Amino acid sequence: MLTTDDSSYSSSSSDGLSCILEESSDDTPILEEFLDDEPDAQQMSFLVRLRQATEQMRALLSSKRRRKKRFIRRDREEAHERLYREYFAEGSVYNEHHFRRKFRMRKNLFIRIMEALGNHSEYFQLRYDALGRRGLTPLIKCTAAMWMLAYGISVDGLDKYLKVGESTALECMKKFARGVVTVFGEEYLRKPTQTDIDRLLEMGDARDFPGMLGSIDCMHWEWKNCPATWKTVFAKGFYKVPTIILQIIASYDLWIWHAFFGYPGSLSDIKVFDHSPAFHDLYEDRAPKCEYVVNGHKYTIGYFLSDGICPKWSTFVKTVPLLQDSKAKLFAQHQEAVRKDVQRAFSVLQDRFTIIRGPARFMEEDDMALMMKACIILHNMIVEDERDLYDLTLDYEHVEDSTLEPSIRLDHHPCYTTYFQRSAQVRDPETHARLQADLVEEIWKRNLEQKRHG
User: What is the pLDDT of residues 279-309, one digit of tens each?
Assistant: First the structure.
């Protein structure tokens, strides 16, 4: 039997439970069940305290969720004025030499890229927010992206000078790279046209390698943030770290005519050559004409200088491993010297864009491919813009409609027949050996003629 104190306590507890039931809660059916069973005062008191503790916990969690990210007020107008005054204004603090060293290119080329991206995307146009405040200028965005590609610096390193936050800097770099690939990729990463082939043949003949179209080789880019489940696929025993392979074809002026990126580093270079699209136009009989004579023999397929690991195809000319006579020794010296073109191209590419020299910190393989492609396109743009500094007379302009179009017929599927025939010609080891022997004789004859006239 309840006493007076117990009755008053029970009444207050019941009133408390009644107030709780008036609020919307997921626990209401449970509390109603307790009230229907007429629990004693201690049980009802426990439920009241439990409800109060639950509400306090919910209020605490709600206040944590409402906590906003700390806003950093950056003086972007002052950063733009300082950047323009020091690098772009007439009579700027730093001259053209300092600008090229800092931006890896001439000022006119950088402005051309910035204006082209502004015409292509609204992101690289000057915009204002709802309060009328000016956002980041295209000059700041392009400079931030270019410095990240050129120096591989962290996003925090840009905040002090350009006043660009971490997420904004990464966004600028990705949109800049995507814009460069979209706007300039078709022109500066194009396949050689007929005019280009003729000039490359002329250049190769002047260097005692008639029929040479360039040099080919592969490099490995370390993938630091490779997913753990993929490390066995992208890691090779020699490198001991996950890498991704880049294959390029470069000419004497360091222009990169072909870039193939994305295969895991665990594969050998031979596997990369098997899957590379560098010779697809030859297989499909769509490549420009390439005719030349070596040691009195006529050839119709151009070749590339390569290292010893490449397969014995008619499109590769390797050095002689066993130097048994003076002719072979002279050929090996010439081949190894001229083949350094592709090594110089790799070195210059990595020196200009430090982001691809160090380990890649991207999580996605697509982002790595985008950055690599953008760097190669920018590299070719710099080569074209600065060709007046080199001792070259070649002019690599985009020539329309100079590539032969395939002739398609519908009887007996001749396209497949042509494909297999051309593939057999490209991979013919006998042609490879004959071409190498002819080049040995050709270089020896030219060397004797030079000594006679010298």
Answer: 888 888 888 999 999 999 999 999 999 998 8
Phi-psi region of 136 (alpha: psi -120 to 50; beta: other; left: phi over 0): beta
- Residue 437 sits at φ, ψ, to 5 deg, of -65, -40
Q: Could you give the CA distance from residue 295 to residue 440 in angstroms, rounded to a whole number?
A: 9
Instruction: Report CA torsion sign: 303, 304, 307, 311.
Output: negative
Please state, in angstroms and rounded to a whole number, the distance separating the CA atoms of residues 368 and 11. Answer: 71
Domain ranges of the chain: 4-63, 76-183, 194-453
pLDDT digits (tens, 9 = 90+) for 10-39: 444 444 444 444 444 555 555 555 555 555
User: What amino acid is encoded at 426 in this protein?
Assistant: V
Other beta carbons within 10 angstroms of residue 304's beta carbon come to: 23
CB 155: neighbour CB atoms within 10 A?
18
Task: Say how far apart CA 275 and CA 263 lie, in whole Å.
Answer: 9
Tokens of 424: 């057999």
**List of residues 6+ apart from 268 with CB closer than 8 A:** 309
Q: Which tokens go with 17? A: 């439970």
Q: Give the integer Cα–Cα distance in Å for 114 and 125.
A: 9
Torsion of CA 416, 422, 427, 433, to 10 degrees: 160
What one-letter code names the amino acid at 418?
Answer: T
| pLDDT number for residue 388 | 73
239 vs 113: CA distance, rounded Å:
37
Q: Is 185 exposed, middle or buried (0-12, 13-18, 19+ CB in 10 A)?
A: middle
140 falls in which pLDDT band (50, 70, 90)?
Answer: very high
- Within the chain, what is the greatest distance between any pair of CA atoms? 132
The one-letter amino acid code at 165 reads G
Contact yes or no for 322/281 (Cβ under 8 A): no
Phi-psi region of 85 (alpha: psi -120 to 50; beta: other; left: phi over 0): alpha
Q: Are 375 and 356 in contact (CB under 8 A)?
A: yes
Residues 6+ apart with CB under 8 A from 262: 244, 245, 365, 369
